Amino acid sequence: MSLHSLPLFVRLAGRPVILLGEGEAADAKRRLLERAGAVIVGEDAAAALAVVAIEDEDAALAAVERLKARGLLVNAVDRPALCDFTTPAIIDRAPVLIAIGTGGVSAGLAAALRQRLEALLPAGLGRLADQLHHARAALRAHYPDGATRRRALGAALAAGGALDPMREDADVPRWIAGGQAIEQGRVRIALASPDPDALTLRQARWLANADRVVFHPGVPAVILDRARADAVREAWGEAMAAHDGLTVELEMA
Asked: Which pTM was predicted?
């Protein structure tokens, strides 16, 4: 299943961004760009990104054409077909940022989802991220093997785990000191449905933490996409060498 866009987080602090237009839409984009630390400049300035918030259709199309001819990536407000990039609805739990995008087709839907998720995420989520960052050296010392370290973190951060992001009392140093069981071996999942939403929480966790995924014919790509991008994928029947870590085998029931 292909992505219509690749979500990226771009550091704009101190960098020039062209903004064209006046009115509410332009003011909203200006506030967002300034919040990210961007320097707002005019059309003739050197920049890599540009935002066109011009209401008049012909003037907007002409501006987009000029900017793209210079090799700039352009966001055209309310014109998703002309956009090289879009700006998502944002949930800020610094340093955690959650971006919700619809490819520009419905800003209202993105905003509604942001409001719902905002109420679910604890205010202390950023504190957990900071703890994990400061504990990187201790984690490497405790789990020298990268795959083992990733599986330990995956189990701790899962629902109900010691570092469940929905908890307000997660304590990374205490978790490291207490040790953590590591999932490994081979798990076989018989899928009852090609719908990824039909996966149980345990199945979704296994798939997300797998180092290798062996899939039988008929398993849809949308299920395989739930695995990590760097997990090894092998079609059933290929020569399968011994593999340390967690292997998940997928088949349709």
From this structure: 0.70
